[in-house]
Structure formats: structure tokens, C-alpha cells
From TrEMBL:
It is an enzyme of class 7 (translocase). It comes from Erythrobacter aureus. It is found in: Cytoplasm. Signal peptide: none annotated. This is Flagellum-specific ATP synthase. One of its GO terms (cellular component) is bacterial-type flagellum. Pfam families: ATP-synt_ab, T3SS_ATPase_C. Keywords: ATP synthesis, ATP-binding, Bacterial flagellum biogenesis, Bacterial flagellum protein export, Cell projection, Cilium, Cytoplasm, Flagellum, Hydrogen ion transport, Ion transport, Nucleotide-binding, Plasmid, Protein transport, Translocase, Transport. GO terms for biological process: bacterial-type flagellum organization; protein secretion by the type III secretion system. It comes from the Bacteria. Its EC number is 7.1.2.2. Residues 158-342 form the AAA+ ATPase domain. One of its GO terms (molecular function) is ATP binding.
Length: 441
């Protein structure tokens, strides 16, 4: 009976109208369709008949009688005059508990060879809206991530949105894999946006493992996917997260990376004729970033929360480049990974003095904050004098604070070293740090 009711609801949502146009021109990735005046809307889905099979596309711009469409796949085989069918209605997903343990593409279609996905009863818009600001719950208590440097110096809280800022090859993906496996949550939704295709299976098998995958939904759009599919994958990741949040779950939403979402939006904007602004990024990039990131966070009354961890690939290790600067101003904290620290052999290569969690100091106890602040001050002193010490220009006994920092800082660095098999425990980690800080003069 429930299946019949669901089917009747789906049939009732189908519009009896059918609108058709034809391809007028193909300019690079942009397909111009005529004949949809008055019926095409921004975001409408279009199916174009091509020699190699139907090509799914989306209306991304309108110019009088011409609809500018970008395809979700290779537009090979599309010819001038080809028939284009406009799908009416809003793009939605229907996730369910049966999606856990599955891998899907940016349109929510299974790509793991495990058969069709179960269809949920509630429709979830792909480009949804966050809960109203005045009805949102507050950020919840501290969540253990198992990463000592984070749990002590830049803690993550339930419903918080945290950014991981790093250049290429600094250990960002490894840190995200540790967070995916260890962070306490009910459901994990992981968006791999613009990632290398060869790394997807490694991430699923090695980093998630069977237990991690069983509580996760993985959304994949590799670097060779069209820009529209990469952007859509980010929206789909958030839509699935919102579905489980609305069920009252604590959702861990991880996206790697926001930068590639921004790059995809830049490609789409330039194809539609938008003027390039800072470093070629179009104005819509900076409008879409908060719309995407604000969807994470605490839910409204009776809902769960989405704890978001978003990676930002810093171009040329410039942490003031446009995307990093924009994202840093939206999120509730930022973790900076330093190439210099990684070259010294300390991983995760988190720069503790440049990383910030806006949930401090409330999420730590008074005793924990006292230990954290003392350790931060000591590490700051050591960082200021590190080069002089290495060069032998500093003489022991010149400054008691520096002498103490030189003695204790290496032990703190050793405490913060971790591998993917070495999970931390916050209470024990604070106890070890407190013991180091109590080292006699």
C-alpha cells in the first residue's frame, strides 16, 4: 500500500505539458537551444537527442529565445537542429537509509555496480535552502575527531563548519581520511569533487574501510567530469546531508574540495558570458559559495545537525587567494596545513598558531583551556626563536622562557604526530600535554 501511495504521488507530480526545442549552436561546452521561450527556467533540465544517445543538460542562462545549456556529460554526437526536450519541475533527490554504503554520481545515480538505489518517500531539492537563521539551533558540544592537534588546539563541535586550507601535497587528503574514519557521527556524507579518478577506490577501501562505508554515502565527480557535474556533485552532497539531518541524525558532511566547486562555477559563468573578476573568478562564484556552505550547520527544531568539514586547495600556498579568503570568512574556523611543518616530518602538518576554531574557549573546560593557552604561548616562543636556535646564535640561559620552550616544544611536536592507525583520545591527550607543561624548570 505504501508503494502504491508513493507511486501515485510521483505520477501526480508529473506535468502533462511537454516542451520541445532544437539545438541552434554548440560553442565549446555551451549548447544553445531555441524554441523554449517562456517555458525554460534557470536550472531546468533538458534532454538532447544525440547520435551517441541522449545528453542530459541544464539551462544555465537565457538570452531572448535562446536557452544556454551546459551538459552533464560529453556532448559528443550533438548536432545542429537536434531535438531538445525540456523536463518540467524542480530537480530533486529521494534518498533513504538504503543509500548508506553506496557510491553515487553528481545526479544521485549509483556508480558502484551494486544495483539500483532504494527510493525514499520525501523529495529533497538538490539546491535546497538552509534553515531560517532565527529558528536554527545553536552549535552543540565538542565532537572527538581522534586527531590530537585538532581536539586540543582547534576543536570541532556538533554543527560547526570547519575549513582545511592546504596547498597540494601537504597531507590534506590523509587528514580528511582520518577525520572520516574517526569522527563521531550517525551518518557521513562525503563529496569527492574534482578528485583524481584513481584515488576514489583507494579512499573507499583504505580510508573508509567496510565499517566506515556502511555509515556513509559517497558522491563522486572526478576531475575529468564536465563543470556542471562537478558543481552538481557539491549540491547533491549537501542535499543528501540535509535529508539525514531532517531525520534527526548528526551528519558529518565532508567535501574535498570547495576550490574545485568554485573552479567549476567559474567555468560555467565564463561559458555564459559573465565577466571575469578576481583571478578570473566570476561574480556568481562568490555568490554561490555562501549558498552552498550555509546549508551545513545546526538544523531547526526537531532536526539534527550537519557538521561540515570543507577542504580548500590553496593556490600556490597563498592563503590570501580569493577562494580561501572568501571561504575563511564564511566558516566557523579554519585549519591551516603548512608545507614547512610537513617537510620537518610532523604529520598532520597543522600549523597550530595559524589555525582557529570559533568554538573556543566555550567547548573546553577551564583546566583544558589553561593547558591549551600555556602550550600555545610556549610554541609561539619557540617558533619565534627557532631559526636562531638552529643556527646556534642563541645561548642557553639568555632567556628562561626561551630555554623552557626549547626544552618542551619538541616533546609537544612528538605528541602531535599521528598516523592513520594512531587514534587520539581527548582526555588522555590533554593529560599528556599537561604533564609536559609541568616539566620542572
Amino acid at each position: 500500500m505504501q508503494t502504491l501511495t508513493s507511486a501515485a504521488r510521483a505520477i501526480g507530480a508529473i506535468s502533462p505539458d511537454r516542451h520541445f526545442g532544437k539545438v541552434a549552436a554548440v560553442r565549446g561546452a555551451l549548447i544553445e537551444v531555441e524554441g523554449l521561450l517562456g517555458s525554460a527556467r534557470i536550472g531546468s533540465q533538458v534532454t538532447i537527442e544525440a547520435a551517441d544517445g541522449p545528453v542530459e543538460a541544464e539551462v544555465t542562462g537565457l538570452d531572448r529565445d535562446v536557452a544556454h545549456c551546459l551538459p552533464f556529460s560529453d556532448p559528443r554526437g550533438v548536432a545542429s537542429g537536434a531535438l531538445a526536450h525540456l523536463a518540467m519541475g524542480q530537480s530533486v533527490l529521494r534518498p533513504s537509509r538504503g543509500w548508506l554504503g553506496r557510491v553515487v554520481d553528481g545526479l544521485g545515480r549509483p556508480i558502484d555496480g551494486k544495483g539500483p538505489l532504494s527510493i525514499g518517500q520525501e523529495a529533497c531539492p538538490i539546491k535546497g535552502e538552509p534553515p531560517a537563521a532565527v529558528t536554527r539551533s545553536r552549535v552543540g558540544p565538542r565532537v572527538e575527531t581522534g586527531v590530537r592537534a585538532l581536539d586540543i588546539f582547534a576543536p570541532l563541535c556538533k554543527g560547526q563548519r570547519l575549513g582545511l586550507f592546504a596547498g597540494s601535497g601537504v597531507g590534506k587528503s590523509t587528514l580528511m581520511s582520518m577525520l572520516t574514519r574517526w569522527t563521531d557521527c550517525d551518518v557521513a556524507v562525503i563529496g569527492l569533487i574534482g578528485e583524481r579518478g584513481r584515488e576514489v577506490q583507494e579512499f573507499i577501501e583504505d580510508n573508509l574501510g567496510p565499517e566506515g562505508l556502511a555509515r556513509s554515502v559517497v558522491v563522486v565527480a572526478t576531475s575529468d567530469s564536465p563543470a556542471l557535474m562537478r558543481r552538481q556533485a557539491a549540491w547533491t552532497t549537501m542535499a543528501i546531508s540535509e535529508h539525514f539531518r531532517d531525520e534527526g541524525k548528526h551528519v558529518l558532511c565532508m567535501m574535498d574540495s570547495v576550490t574545485r566547486f568554485a573552479m567549476a562555477q567559474r567555468e560555467i559563468g565564463l561559458a555564459n558570458g559573465e565577466p571575469p573578476a578576481t583571478k578570473g573568478y566570476t561574480p556568481t562564484v562568490f555568490a554561490e559559495l555562501p549558498r552552498l556552505l550555509e546549508r551545513a550547520g545546526p538544523g531547526g527544531p526537531g532536526q539534527g545537525s550537519i557538521t561540515g568539514i570543507f577542504s580548500v586547495l590553496v593556490d600556490g600556498d597563498d592563503h590570501d587567494e580569493p577562494i580561501a579568503d572568501a571561504v575563511r570568512g564564511i566558516l566557523d574556523g579554519h585549519i591551516v596545513l603548512s608545507r614547512k611543518i610537513g617537510e620537518r616530518g610532523r604529520f598532520p602538518a597543522i600549523d597550530l598558531l595559524k589555525s582557529v576554531s570559533r568554538m573556543l574557549p566555550e567547548c573546553h573546560s577551564e583546566e583544558e583551556n589553561a593547558v591549551r593557552l600555556a602550550a600555545s604561548a610556549l610554541l609561539s616562543t619557540y617558533t619565534d626563536m627557532e631559526e636562531l636556535v638552529r643556527l646556534g646564535a642563541y645561548k642557553d640561559g639568555s632567556d628562561p622562557a626561551v630555554d623552557r620552550a626549547v626544552r618542551i616544544a619538541p616533546a609537544i611536536e612528538e605528541l602531535l604526530k599521528q598516523t592513520k592507525r594512531d587514534r587520539g583520545e581527548t582526555k588522555s591527550d590533554f593529560a599528556q600535554l599537561a604533564a609536559l607543561m609541568e616539566t620542572p624548570e
